[in-house]
Design goal:
alpha/beta, disordered N terminus, binds pyridoxal-5'-phosphate
Length: about 400
């Protein structure tokens, strides 16, 4: 190691590192997106139509499902899926407390009770043993959330689903393309629910969502739930919603879907580089890396570390001063949200979710993140932790971790 050119681990405010940079992504696809949007305007066909039908076919092919049904958002996808799966007011649906609000919000919105059970500390995903203990005669669905882009442990959930005849609704909002034992999310349960919120791995130019299933009857019901329960010809067989995917969104998403695998590989490459640099910089005692399970393909919607020893606030403050973006997903577990006080949970009830909420810190992971910026994030962490290593970063980038089924 050269001692003549140590890297200065000091605040370098000349190059702010944004947490996410959608403009950088847009610059790589600007012409394709503009052409597609122009074509859409020329047709003046904005609601459902051919572009949405084509996107549905392409997403079904991508997720290896028989059917895909577009809708207005990931939240709506969850709501429509719960209703189609037969969840009724007063029913219980088991899900994770450590997720974006919509997972439990959707359950509450259909009149059911979110039953929140604790997570596994390494993957941040729903713990199957806790799910099993929470099943009652009123349980009508299990909703695993593939948090941050890595699938939940599914095998035990499949056994519970079969034994108790309870459908699984996947919250795949953060996990398009993620795999569990060689199978894609979207077909790991009865219905898969995806979001096209702009910061998801496949993000639109606004809100959007899609549901996947292999069941033709569920597909038909989801299709009609999004258009006021119309079975065709103003034949309203049930009361549904206005929850359609815009043709403009579908147009943009079809362009972006062609790039999704390359973007996912870029995210995995950045994750591997972080792992290498954080351990080479001697920070592993303070910054715990995300666990990548050997039977899964992690798509890294987020690169979520834990800052141990109660140092998160100080580390965040220092990163902010160094103009390095970072974020906390999620600071308050859902069982402690004010609007769910009615569910009766107390602090301490779900200790792993609470500990995760207190420790997690997500770092910039998007494909377009320049290597120099990624290195600056790790230098910034060193600085924040008061480490003054003069380690020169190794220049090799390891091959992308690709998990066998
Ligand atoms: C983004 C997200 C949703 C909701 O998606 P919207 O399209 O924003 O409605 C649901 N669940 C999880 C885990 C999410 O990350």
């Amino acid at each position: 190691m050269s001692s003549s050119h140590p890297r200065a681990l000091s605040a370098d405010n000349a190059h702010p590192v944004p947490f996410i940079d959608l403009v950088a992504q847009y610059q790589t696809i600007r012409d394709e997106v503009r052409d597609a949007v122009d074509r859409c305007f020329e047709t003046q066909s904005f609601i459902l139509g051919e572009e949405v039908a084509l996107l549905e076919q392409e997403i079904a092919a991508y997720c290896d499902s028989q059917f895909a049904i577009g809708c207005a958002s990931g939240t709506d996808a969850l709501i429509l899926a719960l209703i189609a799966a037969g969840v009724k007011p007063g029913d219980e649906v088991i899900t994770s407390p450590f997720t974006f609000f919509a997972s439990a919000g959707a359950i509450h919105r259909v009149g059911a009770v979110p039953v929140l059970v604790d997570i596994e500390p390494d993957s941040f995903n729903l713990c199957p043993e806790h799910v099993e203990r929470a099943i009652t005669s009123r349980t009508t669905a299990i909703m695993p959330v593939h948090i941050f882009g890595q699938c939940a442990e599914m095998e035990p959930l499949w056994r519970l689903s079969a034994a108790f005849d309870i459908p699984i609704i996947e919250d795949s909002a953060q996990a398009i393309g993620a795999e569990y034992r060689g199978r894609r999310t979207g077909v790991l349960g009865t219905i898969g629910c995806f979001s096209f919120f702009p910061t998801k791995n496949l993000g639109g130019a606004g809100d959007g969502g899609i549901m996947t299933t292999d069941d033709p009857e569920l597909a038909a019901r989801l299709r009609r739930l999004r258009v006021h329960g119309d079975a065709g010809g103003y034949n309203h067989v049930e009361v549904g919603f206005n929850s359609r995917l815009d043709a403009l969104q579908a147009t943009v998403l079809r362009v972006k879907l062609r790039h999704l695998d390359a973007w996912t590989e870029g995210r995995a490459r950045n994750a591997a580089r972080y792992a290498e640099l954080i351990s080479a910089s001697g920070l592993s005692d303070a910054i715990q890396l995300p666990a990548v399970m050997s039977d899964r393909r992690h798509v890294f919607n987020q690169f979520t570390t834990r800052v141990t020893g109660g140092r998160r606030a100080a580390v965040m403050q220092s990163l902010k001063e160094q103009q390095i973006g970072c974020a906390v997903y999620y600071p308050i577990p859902l069982h402690l949200q004010k609007c769910f006080a009615c569910l009766g949970y107390q602090p301490g009830d779900l200790p792993e979710a609470e500990r995760a909420a207190a420790e997690v810190l997500s770092l910039p992971i998007y494909t377009e993140l320049p290597t120099a910026h990624l290195e600056r994030v790790v230098e910034g962490l060193s600085h924040a932790l008061g480490r003054h290593s003069t380690l020169a970063f190794p220049k090799t980038t390891p091959a992308i971790q690709r998990r066998a089924a």
